[in-house]
Specification:
The complex is a heterodimer of chains A (298) and B (357).
Chain A (H helix, E strand, L loop, with lengths): L2 H40 L3 H4 L15 H8 E2 L4 E2 L2 H31 L5 H10 L9 H15 L7 H25 L3 H9 L4 H9 L4 H17 L2 H6 L8 H10 L5 H33 L4
Antiparallel strand pairs in A: 1-2
Helix pairs in contact in A: 1-13, 3-13, 4-7, 4-10, 4-12, 5-7, 7-10, 10-13, 12-13
Chain B lengths: L5 H54 L16 H7 L4 H35 L6 H9 L6 H11 L11 H8 L15 E3 L5 H8 L11 E3 L2 H25 L3 H9 L4 H12 L1 H16 L3 H7 L11 H11 L3 H32 L1
Classes of the chains: A mainly alpha (298), B mainly alpha (357).
Chain lengths: 298, 357
């Protein structure tokens, strides 16, 4: 190659690089637009938010009034704040996450290290449960909760425990899947060596697998936390009072009433998004792994 | 010759009993492992399979109203949806039309954007981590939040307010002709039966194609935009993982053979990414079939002429608002069948691939 050709080659190379960065940045902006809109609208006063001509501009004065109304609610225009929903969601998300993670860990251990005949078919049968549209089980779910109350006197319909039960059970397939794939990576030789040393079913789990499980637990708990926090369908079907509504239903009631001003709606949307976003920002690496596990290939 | 020690004679029976002891221990451990798995299996057997069976049963009954009425009516609920003349059939046909339009556009845009971004990010980009983080964060957010945010951005505005959101930006940029009614648009693109082409179709016996049920509701585009915003980054991540697993030698070998950059992408990389695309189609496809929260949040669950109605939303409204439980169950089962035809072959192939390894 002569010097001029090489120089031309380098120049075109530089232009392609520039072009690539331009496209990436453009898409980056697109992904950030809704967050930008939520932020600037949320920090505006109601009067400023009503000014459509400046809806894309940052607030002239930054105020927290919208967040206050979004959190505590208001009398006029009437809205119930997110406060109750936020704590309801915490109350149901944390136990359901812990429970489904524990169950998934045990199931994963059994399915990875104690394969019995037909274990794979059973496992596939379990996995199917994470793909089904819940519309195909909602009617019997509600009926069963009501029947359960008639028989045992324990109320599950429209209670936090009822939501915990649903999220835990329908969370079992994904938590089992993630732990099974995680434990499959731990060499079976290790388990066999410990058996020769006298370890049994329980001690192998307690002293060998469980201590190695921490990253698995982080992945599973992040996954369960975000998906239970973000759930709407179970919330709107199994809860029928603001005392039990999870935060997504509270947000929907604020946004869906159509008379709550946009600044309050955006502030409420932002508050709802914050817990999963914090998880994503601080534990993003594990979040990614959960996402990948969701596509089965581990 | 030395006399064998007594231990040597004793050894065989000892090892025998030890192995028997081990076999016994393995047996109780096998039982324990199954016993511990049992609660989960029973829970899923009831909550997944039992409940599906129960919904199938309800879909064969005429249960309308709050109190269960389990009189069997055969396939009437399904018949009403597919072949009926009432509004439920009209609505269900529209749902299917919208679901198809949504799925096709949502999958296409996620795959194009996802693959494109992954291919660009795979070229030793400075700040790759930051880009990846920005592209992927929408996936952590609730559909309800996405819907509320995009509803504000895509609010078309009216005579009183003037253009709002994206329409305002378009007008300011001098692109006013691109303004749209977004998710409130009642327009359905279809072949008009009175048009020349429509009449031609009618003459050759294909008149049913010139029908708003075979068409595309423009309002669905807004749902596609919001859903793509949420899932294209996830698609990118799947493709990027796929690209990273392709050994560099393969590209280099093709380059040495004189392949251009385009040819390498087209004939080496793309075929190797086929399994990733299959995964993407199945995962996004089943999400698309189940789409519900996003529609509710963006439209409040109502739209003129059901322009943004989808089966999952129809099921919920029919069942819990209109208390037509039999009819709702039928829609739920139709949804399940659609998802199952996508998922079961996938699960089977995954399981088979695993046993081969």
């Amino acid at each position: 190659m002569t010097a001029t050709v090489r120089a031309r080659h380098r120049a075109s190379f530089r232009w392609t690089r520039l072009f690539i960065y331009a496209i990436l940045i453009l898409f980056g902006i697109w992904y950030l637009v809704p967050v930008y809109v939520m932020l600037i609208t949320g920090f505006k006063s109601q009067i400023e938010a009503l000014q459509i001509s400046t809806m894309w501009s940052p607030p002239a004065i930054i105020g927290f009034k919208s967040f206050e109304i979004a959190w505590f609610g208001a009398v006029n225009p009437a809205s119930v704040g997110l406060q109750q929903g936020f704590f309801n969601s915490l109350q149901l998300t944390i136990p359901a996450t812990l429970l489904s993670a524990m169950i998934g860990s045990l199931n994963g251990y059994i399915l990875a290290k104690w394969k019995f005949r037909g274990a794979n078919i059973l496992f596939a049968g379990m996995l199917f449960g994470m793909f089904i549209p819940y519309q195909s089980i909602l009617i019997p779910l509600v009926q069963t909760y009501k029947l359960f109350e008639n028989v045992t006197g324990i109320t599950l319909f429209s209670t936090i425990p009822g939501l915990i039960v649903a999220h835990t059970i329908y969370g079992i397939p994904i938590t089992t899947l993630i732990f099974r794939n995680y434990y499959a990576q731990i060499p079976t030789e290790m388990v066999e060596a410990s058996r020769i040393d006298g370890a049994n079913f329980f001690t192998i789990y307690r002293y060998i697998l469980f201590p190695l499980s921490q990253p698995g637990f982080v992945v599973v708990m992040i996954w369960q936390f975000t998906s239970i926090w973000n759930d709407f369908l179970f919330g709107v079907t199994l809860a029928n009072t603001p005392k039990v509504y999870p935060i997504t239903v509270s947000l929907y009631n604020i946004a869906g009433s159509f008379h709550v001003p946009w600044n309050v709606q955006m502030a409420a949307a932002l508050v709802t998004a914050i817990p999963p976003l914090l998880v994503y920002i601080f534990l993003g690496r594990y979040f990614m792994r959960g996402l990948m596990a969701g596509s089965l290939k581990g | 010759m030395t006399v064998p020690s007594p231990e040597a004679f004793a050894a065989p029976p000892l090892s025998l009993s030890r192995s028997r002891r081990r076999a016994l221990r393995q047996n109780w451990e096998r039982v324990a492992s199954v016993l511990l798995l049992l609660p989960s299996l029973i829970a899923l057997a009831i909550f997944v399979y039992g409940f599906i069976g129960s919904t199938v049963f309800v879909s064969f009954t005429k249960w309308e109203g709050a109190a269960p009425d389990l009189t069997l009516v055969g396939l009437r609920n399904y018949q009403r949806l597919f072949l009926g003349a009432g509004t439920d059939a009209v609505r269900f046909h529209i749902d299917i039309r919208n679901e198809i339009g949504f799925t096709v556009l949502f999958l296409t845009s996620c795959i194009v954007i996802g693959f494109g971004l992954a291919a660009l990010l795979d070229r030793r980009i400075r700040g790759e981590g930051i880009f990846r983080g920005v592209f992927l964060f929408p996936n952590a957010i609730a559909f309800i939040v996405t819907g509320v945010a995009w509803r504000w951005i895509l609010t078309p505005g009216d005579v009183a307010t003037g253009p709002v959101g994206v329409n305002l930006l378009l007008e300011r940029a001098g692109l006013g002709f691109l303004k749209s009614q977004w998710f409130t648009d009642p327009t359905v693109l279809h072949i008009s039966p009175t048009s020349q082409f429509g009449q031609l179709l009618n003459q050759v016996g294909l008149g049913f194609l010139a029908n708003p049920d075979i068409g595309y509701a423009l309002a669905v585009t807004s749902l596609v935009i919001a859903a793509t915003w949420q899932f294209s980054g996830y698609t990118m991540a799947l493709y990027l993982a796929g690209l990273r697993s392709i050994p560099d030698e393969l590209r280099e070998a093709a380059q040495i053979d004189g392949a251009t950059e385009w040819q390498v992408q087209r004939y080496v990389i793309l075929p190797l990414l086929k399994p990733v695309t299959l995964t993407v189609v199945i995962i996004l496809g089943h999400i698309s079939l189940k789409i519900y929260d996003l529609v509710v949040a963006m439209t409040g669950g109502v739209s003129a002429g059901f322009a943004t109605d989808v089966p999952a939303l129809n099921m919920w409204k029919t069942t819990f608002d209109a208390t037509l439980f039999g009819q709702g169950a039928a829609i739920g089962i139709i949804l399940l069948i659609l998802v199952a035809t996508l998922i079961i072959p996938y699960l089977r192939s995954q399981m088979r691939a695993e046993t081969q390894v």
